[in-house]
Protein backbone atom coordinates (compact mmCIF):
# COMPACT_ATOMS: atom_id res chain seq x y z
CA UNK A 1 0.00 0.00 0.00
CA UNK A 2 1.48 3.33 -1.07
CA UNK A 3 1.80 5.69 1.88
CA UNK A 4 3.98 8.52 3.10
CA UNK A 5 6.35 8.76 6.05
CA UNK A 6 8.52 11.48 7.53
CA UNK A 7 12.06 11.39 8.83
CA UNK A 8 14.29 13.98 10.47
CA UNK A 9 18.06 13.77 10.07
CA UNK A 10 19.13 15.02 13.50
CA UNK A 11 21.79 17.66 14.28
CA UNK A 12 24.51 15.08 15.01
CA UNK A 13 24.15 13.51 11.56
CA UNK A 14 23.88 16.82 9.69
CA UNK A 15 27.03 18.04 11.51
CA UNK A 16 28.85 14.84 10.47
CA UNK A 17 27.90 15.35 6.80
CA UNK A 18 25.78 12.18 6.74
CA UNK A 19 22.74 13.83 5.12
CA UNK A 20 23.46 12.48 1.64
CA UNK A 21 24.22 8.98 2.93
CA UNK A 22 20.95 8.81 4.82
CA UNK A 23 18.76 10.18 2.02
CA UNK A 24 20.49 7.86 -0.49
CA UNK A 25 19.46 4.81 1.51
CA UNK A 26 15.79 5.72 1.22
CA UNK A 27 16.13 6.49 -2.50
CA UNK A 28 17.96 3.22 -3.18
CA UNK A 29 15.29 1.33 -1.25
CA UNK A 30 12.74 2.67 -3.74
CA UNK A 31 11.11 5.56 -1.91
CA UNK A 32 10.38 8.81 -3.71
CA UNK A 33 11.20 12.13 -2.08
CA UNK A 34 8.05 14.24 -1.77
CA UNK A 35 9.35 17.10 0.40
CA UNK A 36 12.82 18.03 1.68
CA UNK A 37 13.96 20.93 3.87
CA UNK A 38 17.03 22.00 5.87
CA UNK A 39 16.04 24.12 8.86
CA UNK A 40 16.55 24.89 12.54
CA UNK A 41 13.78 23.89 14.93
CA UNK A 42 12.49 26.78 17.04
CA UNK A 43 12.15 25.74 20.71
CA UNK A 44 8.34 25.93 20.74
CA UNK A 45 8.14 24.06 17.43
CA UNK A 46 10.37 21.27 18.80
CA UNK A 47 8.25 21.02 21.97
CA UNK A 48 5.17 20.67 19.78
CA UNK A 49 6.85 18.17 17.42
CA UNK A 50 7.86 15.93 20.35
CA UNK A 51 4.67 16.70 22.35
CA UNK A 52 3.99 13.00 22.92
CA UNK A 53 7.09 12.94 25.17
CA UNK A 54 6.36 16.12 27.13
CA UNK A 55 5.96 14.35 30.49
CA UNK A 56 9.07 12.17 30.08
CA UNK A 57 12.18 12.91 32.14
CA UNK A 58 14.30 13.23 28.99
CA UNK A 59 12.03 15.83 27.33
CA UNK A 60 14.26 18.82 28.14
CA UNK A 61 17.36 17.04 26.88
CA UNK A 62 15.54 15.99 23.72
CA UNK A 63 14.31 19.51 22.88
CA UNK A 64 17.71 21.00 23.68
CA UNK A 65 19.42 18.51 21.36
CA UNK A 66 17.02 18.78 18.41
CA UNK A 67 17.28 22.61 18.50
CA UNK A 68 21.10 22.55 18.78
CA UNK A 69 21.78 22.78 15.04
CA UNK A 70 20.31 22.38 11.58
CA UNK A 71 18.21 19.31 10.77
CA UNK A 72 16.86 17.93 7.50
CA UNK A 73 13.23 16.85 7.29
CA UNK A 74 11.95 14.67 4.47
CA UNK A 75 8.63 13.23 3.46
CA UNK A 76 9.00 10.08 1.40
CA UNK A 77 6.46 7.93 -0.40
CA UNK A 78 6.32 4.27 -1.26
CA UNK A 79 4.99 0.86 -0.30
CA UNK A 80 4.43 0.45 3.45
CA UNK A 81 6.48 3.62 4.11
CA UNK A 82 5.87 4.03 7.85
CA UNK A 83 6.72 0.49 9.00
CA UNK A 84 9.55 0.03 6.47
CA UNK A 85 11.21 3.30 7.47
CA UNK A 86 11.14 2.24 11.13
CA UNK A 87 12.90 -1.02 10.18
CA UNK A 88 15.51 0.90 8.16
CA UNK A 89 16.38 3.33 10.99
CA UNK A 90 16.89 0.61 13.64
CA UNK A 91 16.55 0.56 17.42
CA UNK A 92 16.33 3.87 19.32
CA UNK A 93 19.58 3.24 21.20
CA UNK A 94 22.11 3.45 18.37
CA UNK A 95 24.59 1.36 20.35
CA UNK A 96 22.07 -1.52 20.27
CA UNK A 97 20.79 -0.99 16.72
CA UNK A 98 21.52 -3.81 14.27
CA UNK A 99 24.31 -3.35 11.74
CA UNK A 100 22.68 -2.61 8.39
CA UNK A 101 20.23 -0.18 9.97
CA UNK A 102 20.96 3.55 9.77
CA UNK A 103 21.50 3.96 13.53
CA UNK A 104 23.38 0.66 13.64
CA UNK A 105 25.77 1.73 10.91
CA UNK A 106 26.35 5.38 11.79
CA UNK A 107 25.94 6.06 15.51
CA UNK A 108 26.48 5.14 19.13
CA UNK A 109 24.18 7.68 20.82
CA UNK A 110 20.70 7.65 22.35
CA UNK A 111 19.47 11.25 22.31
CA UNK A 112 21.95 11.87 19.47
CA UNK A 113 20.75 8.90 17.44
CA UNK A 114 21.11 10.19 13.87
CA UNK A 115 17.49 10.04 12.72
CA UNK A 116 13.88 10.19 13.83
CA UNK A 117 10.96 8.69 11.88
CA UNK A 118 7.19 8.72 12.31
CA UNK A 119 5.92 5.57 14.04
CA UNK A 120 2.23 5.76 12.99
CA UNK A 121 -0.15 7.53 10.62
CA UNK A 122 -1.18 9.74 13.54
CA UNK A 123 2.40 10.78 14.32
CA UNK A 124 3.08 11.34 10.58
CA UNK A 125 0.08 13.70 10.36
CA UNK A 126 1.19 15.64 13.44
CA UNK A 127 4.92 15.70 12.63
CA UNK A 128 4.52 16.73 9.00
CA UNK A 129 2.19 19.56 10.01
CA UNK A 130 4.64 20.85 12.65
CA UNK A 131 7.87 20.38 10.68
CA UNK A 132 6.55 22.11 7.55
CA UNK A 133 4.57 24.86 9.33
P1 LIG B 1 13.29 9.60 18.43
O1 LIG B 1 12.98 8.51 17.49
O2 LIG B 1 13.63 10.94 17.88
O3 LIG B 1 12.06 9.79 19.43
C1 LIG B 1 12.21 10.40 20.67
C2 LIG B 1 13.65 10.52 21.07
O4 LIG B 1 13.89 10.69 22.44
C3 LIG B 1 14.38 9.23 20.74
O5 LIG B 1 14.52 9.13 19.35
C4 LIG B 1 15.68 9.41 21.52
O6 LIG B 1 16.61 10.17 20.80
C5 LIG B 1 15.18 10.21 22.70
N1 LIG B 1 15.06 9.40 23.91
C6 LIG B 1 14.19 8.46 24.17
N2 LIG B 1 14.38 7.97 25.42
C7 LIG B 1 15.38 8.66 25.94
C8 LIG B 1 16.03 8.62 27.19
N3 LIG B 1 15.64 7.76 28.16
N4 LIG B 1 17.04 9.47 27.38
C9 LIG B 1 17.40 10.34 26.42
N5 LIG B 1 16.81 10.42 25.21
C10 LIG B 1 15.82 9.57 24.97
- From N to C, what is the helix and strand string? EHHEHHEHHEH
* CATH class label: Alpha Beta
Strand order in space, largest sheet: 2-3-1-4
Question: Roughly how much helix do the residues carry, as a percent range?
Answer: 40-55%
User: Beta-strand level of the residues, as a percent range?
Assistant: 15-25%
Structural class: alpha+beta
- Coarse morphology: globular
Into how many domains do the coordinates divide?
1
Bound molecules: adenosine-3',5'-cyclic-monophosphate
Calculate the mean pLDDT score and round it. Answer: 98
Q: Which architecture per CATH? A: 2-Layer Sandwich
Largest sheet: 4 strands, antiparallel
Superfamily at the CATH H level? Nucleoside diphosphate kinase-like domain
Strand runs, count: 4
Stretches where pLDDT is under 50 for at least 5 consecutive residues are: none
Number of helices: 7
Radius of gyration: 14 Å
CATH topology: Alpha-Beta Plaits
Please report the distance between the alpha carbons of the first and last residues. 27 Å
Give a description of the structure.
The chain has one domain: Nucleoside diphosphate kinase-like domain (Alpha-Beta Plaits), CATH 3.30.70. It has helices at 11-15, 19-29, 43-49, 59-66, 81-89, 102-106, 121-131; strands at residues 2-9, 32-39, 71-79, 115-117. With 133 residues, it is α+β, with helices and mostly antiparallel strands. A 4-stranded antiparallel beta sheet has the order 2-3-1-4, with helices on both faces. Helix 3 runs antiparallel to helix 7. It contains 7 helices and 4 strands. The model has no long low-confidence stretch (mean pLDDT 98). The two termini are 27 Å apart. Bound molecules: adenosine-3',5'-cyclic-monophosphate.
Amino acid sequence: MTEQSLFIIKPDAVARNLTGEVIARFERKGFKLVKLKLFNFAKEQAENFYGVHKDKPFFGELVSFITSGPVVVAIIEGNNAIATTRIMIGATKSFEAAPGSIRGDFGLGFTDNIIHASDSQESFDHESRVAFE
